[in-house]
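Ticket 4471: requesting a sanity check on a complex prediction with 2-acetamido-2-deoxy-beta-D-glucopyranose. Repro inputs:
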Amino acid sequence: MGFPHLLSLWSMTAIFLVINFTVGDAATCSDCFTHSRAAYYPDSDEKGTETGACGFGTFGATINGGDVSAASDLYRDGVGCGACYQVKCSNSNLCSDKGVTVVITDNGASDRTDFILSRRAFGRMAQTTDDAASLLALGVVDIDYRHASCSYPDKNITIKIDENSNYPNYLAFVIWYQQGKKDITAVQLCETQNFGCKLLDRSHGAVWTTTSPPIGPLSIRMLFSDDDGETWVVPVNDIPQDWKAGNTYDSGVQVNV
Ligand SMILES: *[C@@H]1O[C@H](CO)[C@@H](O)[C@H](O)[C@H]1NC(C)=O
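Returned C-alpha cells:
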C-alpha cells in the first residue's frame, strides 16, 4: 500500500534535486569556460618575460614553472595581475582535456587573442610533445578558458620590494604568491606603533607605491575582493624598519584556495 507513495515521494525528491542543481549551476557560471584565442610570445624563451607589464620582474617569468601569460582585457589595468586561468585549446586531435593553468604577469594582445602564453604553457595544452610542436607551428589557436584558483603550496604571501624603491623616501612593492581567485583591489600601509594607515596607489600592473612612507616597521594590509564581497587581510609579519630595495619579506599569512 505504502510502496507507490514512497516511489512518488522519491521521484519528487529527485525532481527537486535536479531543479536545485540547475539553479546552482547558473549561479556559479564563473566556472564556465569562455571561447577565445591564444598565441605565444614570439622570440621568447620557454618561460615568460622578466619585463612583463605587471612589474613582477623575474618572478613574472618563472612563477608557476613558467606557465604564465599576458592578458588583454583580463589584464584589467593591472587588477588581473597574478590571477590564474585554466586555458585549453580546442583541436581535439592535438589538445589535452585539461589544458594548462597560467598566471597573468603581462599585458598584451595579438590577432584577437585573450592570452599570449609563454612557449612552455602553449605547448603544455597539447597531448604529446609532437602535438606541442604542431600547436606551436599554428601560432594562434582557438581556446576555452575559465578563471581558476592560484595555488602555491608551501608559500606565504610575500612582499617583494621593487628595485626602484629608494629607502626611506620612496617605497614600491609587488605582492607574490597570492592564492585563490580573489583580486587585491586596495592596499594600506600601516604604522605598527601608532597605527596610522595610508591607502596606497597602484602605480602600474601589480606595483603599489608611496612617497614618504612612515618610518618604523610597516604592516601591509591587503583588500581581497570578489563578487561575494571584500575582506582585509592583515599580515602576521611586518616589513622591517630598515627595508631594502630588492628584498622579499614573508607576510606570514596565506589565503585558502
Ligand atoms: C608562513 O608563515 C607562518 C607564520 O605565520 C610560518 O609559521 C610558516 O613557516 C610560513 N610558511 C612558509 C612556507 O614560509
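Notes from triage: The chain has four helices and 15 strands. Leaving this open until the requester confirms.
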